């Protein structure tokens, strides 16, 4: 919100530079974006009067004007504005002047006629086009009759003001008004505020209830008041009001509409005015819209509504999006005679949802979303009606028609002086603290250091003792708070077991050649359902920011594939990534909060090694990424407890190159190649991935990593070749060898697989190296031979193998 410094000083006596005031506001209340000086950069723009005008001989729209600027001779200026007229005082940029966008005005000839300046519209000297009143939109601006010729124009149109642009946080809705800002500054500077509270001085004797009715859903309009003003004369607002509005970034429309916007800026209460004679059934109803209903807003946008939208309607159709924007059909025009003013408090959550759904964010919705003062409605409504009597000649009815009214009592909070000083590290006296609360407009009852603070309803952000402590801190001054060290007992920080395993996981995977990646937790509905390790229902956002981020992810793999696609699109073909993060799953569609499960995933495309003189790059394959997974699992304590089982059930994975991973016979994830069709969908080359349930890995029992000295005794190796059925798995063979190989068996390694010539159909030949070692004594052949014979017997019994 833009705060006019000139307007501000009408309510509080301040005599400090605007930049210093802005800095104080930023350190004490809310952030300040900037201090705006509308006349900054402008030069030689003065008041002029057109004393003579004739048509340009070579143009059908240009005029040759003689403009009196207070000098001995008039200045000749060629002007094309359609509303230029003799006797009007105008904004005159002289030769050498600087206007908007730092454009310099020079003497020139326009179709052969000398022009020594420029007659300006408001937007040509810096005001945005969207705040220029409609009557001046296509022509030059006429200054007041009492403007002195030759004076700088700035003071006549509010450009000599300084505007402090506040970036108001959601909790400080009270700062979205002149009065709210004055309340805060009055406390900060300890200076009295001079508010001008308006009362209705004259009524017509007519009743609002005799001219209209209202029907309000009290769940969505907590308070809803109407009052009628009859026989208004709709015309442009006085200049002082227009200046207030356009300096705040609001376009003046007419005196009635401008009054509602002026009240909003002054008191913080959004209002709306309807043409009573255009309301079907002379009724206003606050309700939810019906599916398919439509409304044309004041901005000429047609909006199709659904049953979640909050509206105000007459007996036939919607006439406003409640708390957001009015409808064009019932707007105030020059023909309006009878006006209905609306002053209300709408459910802030419903207003925000409707505004976001239709992407219509207005000054009114901004205030309703943050909360307005529930005890300020009557003052706002009465002020608007009295101003309509004064500025539009209206006749104010005697009564206010209440559709609903929510009585809100001020909040009372108990706190002690000791507590405030303990938190802030100060030694403030009770008198000082009470004085701060009184400056803020809070009532205080004191009893031996115990304070009961009653907070006015305009400060809806204060509910608990901590809020009061913050108020004391900011008014006393954050810069004045002492710097002290905490006196509590300090404890040594450390990682819990799960954090340690996570830290270890990152180190291992990065040591294996993968790079840590972080992807969005939000994705598309389609990608969320891919690469899932079990059945789950998706969690969709009610109001997603974009179509690419609508659903909470249920896997990490698609995020990594997007990262690979991003890199390969930029000619980085060798990509090896891993990600640690949560996925979000639900067991039923009705479940409100999804479960968060920690996962570890990896994806590799291209080669892990670069080409060199002695090593050629080789694209990753199934066994390479399987080796990475196995190395990781063994390192964290699962050596000898890992098994793999081929799986063709993942639709996004290659059916012949995918395996489920089991630890202690518990399913923990999968590894394999992304299906070529899916790779094509992501626009990536052949890619291998793994996905592990980290929470499951953490819960499973692990072997402690014990480090032993290297044995000084030699090892003995034996090879064994087996002819077996081709459907027998290597894991099954290795399991029998490990089980029956005896105490001295330390390693089993498959070194050959053959199923070619001289091997019967349906068979394959596997060859293993078995390593034996006694770490305490020299191992003899007799012990090894016994172990090999036992292994052979059990393999023959279990699998009917033939030893070759």
UniProtKB/TrEMBL annotation:
- The source organism is Apilactobacillus bombintestini
Q: Can you give the residue ranges of the B5 domain?
A: 408-483
Q: Where is the TRNA-binding domain?
A: 39-154
Compartment list = Cytoplasm
Top EC category: ligase
Q: Which residue range or ranges hold the FDX-ACB domain? A: 711-804
UniProt KW keywords: Aminoacyl-tRNA synthetase, ATP-binding, Cytoplasm, Ligase, Magnesium, Metal-binding, Nucleotide-binding, Protein biosynthesis, RNA-binding, tRNA-binding
The identity of this protein, by name, is Phenylalanine--tRNA ligase beta subunit
Task: Specify where it is mainly localized.
Answer: cytoplasm
Report the EC code(s) recorded for this entry.
6.1.1.20
Q: Which SUPFAM superfamilies match?
A: Anticodon-binding domain of PheRS (SSF54991), Class II aaRS and biotin synthetases (SSF55681), Nucleic acid-binding proteins (SSF50249), PheT/TilS domain (SSF56037), Putative DNA-binding domain (SSF46955)
List, in alphabetical order, the Gene Ontology terms for molecular function in this entry: ATP binding; catalytic activity, acting on a protein; magnesium ion binding; phenylalanine-tRNA ligase activity; transferase activity; tRNA binding
Presence of the UniProt keyword DNA-binding in the record: no
Does the keyword Cell wall biogenesis/degradation belong to this entry?
A: no
């Amino acid at each position: 919100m833009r705060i006019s410094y000139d307007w501000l000083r009408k309510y509080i006596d301040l005599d400090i530079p605007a930049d210093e005031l802005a800095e104080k506001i930023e350190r004490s209340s809310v952030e300040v974006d900037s201090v705006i000086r509308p006349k900054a950069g402008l030069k030689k723009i003065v008041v002029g009067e057109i004393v003579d005008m004739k048509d340009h001989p070579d143009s059908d729209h240009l005029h040759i004007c003689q403009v009196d600027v207070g000098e001995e001779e008039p200045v000749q200026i060629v002007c094309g504005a359609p509303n230029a007229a003799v006797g009007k005082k105008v904004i005159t940029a002289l030769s050498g002047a600087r206007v908007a966008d730092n454009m310099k005005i020079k003497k020139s000839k326009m179709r052969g006629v000398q022009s020594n300046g420029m007659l300006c519209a408001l937007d040509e000297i810096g005001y945005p086009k969207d705040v220029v009143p409609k009557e001046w939109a296509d022509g030059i601006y006429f200054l007041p009759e009492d403007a002195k010729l030759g004076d700088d124009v700035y003071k006549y149109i509010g450009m000599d003001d300084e505007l402090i642009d506040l970036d108001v946080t959601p909790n400080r809705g009270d700062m979205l008004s002149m009065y709210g800002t004055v309340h805060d500054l009055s406390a900060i500077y300890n200076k009295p505020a001079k508010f001008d509270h308006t009362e209705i001085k004259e009524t017509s004797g007519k009743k609002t209830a005799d001219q209209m009715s209202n029907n309000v859903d009290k769940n969505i309009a907590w308070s809803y008041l109407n009052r009628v003003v009859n026989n208004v004369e709709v015309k442009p607002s006085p200049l002082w009001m227009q200046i207030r509005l356009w300096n705040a970034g609001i376009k003046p429309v007419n005196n009635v509409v401008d009054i509602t916007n002026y009240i909003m800026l002054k008191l913080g209460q959004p209002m709306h005015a309807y043409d009573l004679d255009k309301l079907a059934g002379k009724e206003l109803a606050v309700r939810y819209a019906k599916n398919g209903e439509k409304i044309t807003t004041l901005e000429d946008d047609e909006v199709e509504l659904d049953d979640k939208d909050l509206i105000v309607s007459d007996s036939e159709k919607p006439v406003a999006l409640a708390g957001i924007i009015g409808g064009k059909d019932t707007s105030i025009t020059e023909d309006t005679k009878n006006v209905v003013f609306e002053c209300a408090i709408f459910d802030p959550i419903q207003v925000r949802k409707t505004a976001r759904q239709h992407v219509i964010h207005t000054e009114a919705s901004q205030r309703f979303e943050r909360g307005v003062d529930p005890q300020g409605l009557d003052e706002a409504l009465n002020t608007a009606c009295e101003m309509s009597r004064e500025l539009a000649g209206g006749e104010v009815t005697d009564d206010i028609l209440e559709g609903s009214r929510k009585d809100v009592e001020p909040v009372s909070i108990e706190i002690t002086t000791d507590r405030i000083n303990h938190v802030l590290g100060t030694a403030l006296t009770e008198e000082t603290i009470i004085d701060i609360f009184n400056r803020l407009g809070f009532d205080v009852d004191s009893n031996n250091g115990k304070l009961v603070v009653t907070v006015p309803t305009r400060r809806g952000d204060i509910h608990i003792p901590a809020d009061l402590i913050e108020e004391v801190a900011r008014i006393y001054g954050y810069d004045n708070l002492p710097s002290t060290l905490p006196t509590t007992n300090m404890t040594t920080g450390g990682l819990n077991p799960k954090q340690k395993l996570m830290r270890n996981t990152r180190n291992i995977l990065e040591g294996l050649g993968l790079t840590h990646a972080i992807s969005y937790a939000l994705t598309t509905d389609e990608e969320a359902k891919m690469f899932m390790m079990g059945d789950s229902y998706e969690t969709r956002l009610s109001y997603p920011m974009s179509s690419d981020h609508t659903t909470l992810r249920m896997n990490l793999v698609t995020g990594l594939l997007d990262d690979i696609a991003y890199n390969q699109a930029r000619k980085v073909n060798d990509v090896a990534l891993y990600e640690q993060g949560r996925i979000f799953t639900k067991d039923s569609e009705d479940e409100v909060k999804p479960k968060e499960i920690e996962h570890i995933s990896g994806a590799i495309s291209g080669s892990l090694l670069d080409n060199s003189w002695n090593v050629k790059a080789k694209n990753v394959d199934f066994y390479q990424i399987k080796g990475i997974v196995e190395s990781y699992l063994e390192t964290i304590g699962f050596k000898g407890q890992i098994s793999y089982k081929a799986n063709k059930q993942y639709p996004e994975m290659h059916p012949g190159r995918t395996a489920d991973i089991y630890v202690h016979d518990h399913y923990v994830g999968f590894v394999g190649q992304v299906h070529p069709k899916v790779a094509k969908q992501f626009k990536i080359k052949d890619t291998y991935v793994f996905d592990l349930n980290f929470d499951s890995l953490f819960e499973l029992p692990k072997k402690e990593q014990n480090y032993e000295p290297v044995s000084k005794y030699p090892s003995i190796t034996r090879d064994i070749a087996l002819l077996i059925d081709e459907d027998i798995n290597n894991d099954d063979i290795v399991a029998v060898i490990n089980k029956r190989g005896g105490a001295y068996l330390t390693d089993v390694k498959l070194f050959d697989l053959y199923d070619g010539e001289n091997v019967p159909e349906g068979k394959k030949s596997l060859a293993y190296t078995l390593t034996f070692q006694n770490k305490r004594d020299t191992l003899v052949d007799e012990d090894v031979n016994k172990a090999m014979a036992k292994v052979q017997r059990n393999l023959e019994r279990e699998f009917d193998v033939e030893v070759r």
